[in-house]
Amino acid sequence: MHRSEITIDLGALRRNARRLRQVLGGAELWAVVKAAGYGHGAVDVAGAVLDEGAGALCVATVPEALELRSEFGEARILVMGPVSGREVALAREARLELAVSDAEIPEGVRVHLKLDTGMGRWGLAELPELPVNVVGLMTHLATADSDPDFAAEQLRRFEQATGKHSHLVRHAANSAAALRLPDARLDAARCGVALYGLSPFATDPAEDGLEPVLRWESRLAQVKELAPGESTGYGRRYTAEEPTHIGIVPVGYADGFRRDMTGTQVLVDGERRAVVGTISMDALAVELSGALPVETPVTLIGDGVLAEDHAAVAGTINYEIVCRIESGPMRARRTVLDA
Ligand SMILES: *Cc1c(COP(=O)(O)O)cnc(C)c1O
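Above: the input record for the complex with pyridoxal-5'-phosphate. Below: its predicted structure, written as tokens.
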């Protein structure tokens, strides 16, 4: 019996991809599948989105790209992070494309030059002479989800710097910009989080017509009644004031259920119950309404329990919640549905 089960619904992923393509109109959907497809499994996700007409796959590193190349011989694959000299040779051989953020442009490999228009991270301040192997120009928006005026200013700078190269593929949008900033769509949009049915705006993804792709389920492995004054977990951070049933779920921070998610709610037999006490490496406790049997199902993400809800409790973003779910076979069983 596995401690927890992760189910990846590629049907939902396909519907999200279609929704994004519809929003994007003429711009291409480029699927961002870095960090193991935001914890969903890069190869499974990539296969489904290519099938739905995605024009390229985007990752952060050359090893991520090489894994995809071995599965998808013809796909366009863009490495968005910095690469070493040795990796340039690998990229050339594997027909990868590289985002380049400094004036030294590698030869013999297709390059997208990255301009820093206000993110203050990777990117050139201005465009150099363009060698023929530059096929794209890109920038990244710092505030597409929070400050449309600043995003518009970044787009203005990008347009000014790249306008005379409109024969190259130009791309700036992430998910938030693809959904809310029509001017950012340009030739292609690099969408990650929205594909997975997660909101770039920390709200309910349904508001943008998106469906969560990942479900995470477990069960009660032990149920006990605490007498008043008895506690559960390290540090005795939760102490019962009256006779209280608690259920122990065999999932902890090593599985990706973060230690700062105490207080968040999960579904126990379909009812919302609070996670109480300190979350341990391999276990967490939920407060129950009564004596439930061992094996009662617990939904950690799914059926209306959103990664966004857990992120709000932990003071982080939904991206970080899903990226950290450890679905290696030693911890969880992973099932991929494609319908
Ligand atoms: C991760 C990343 C994206 C995708 O962002 P989402 O908010 O997940 O859509 C797009 N562009 C770059 C450069 C990135 O690093």
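Notes for the reader.
The chain has a mean pLDDT of 97.
Residues 10-24 form the longest helix (15 residues).
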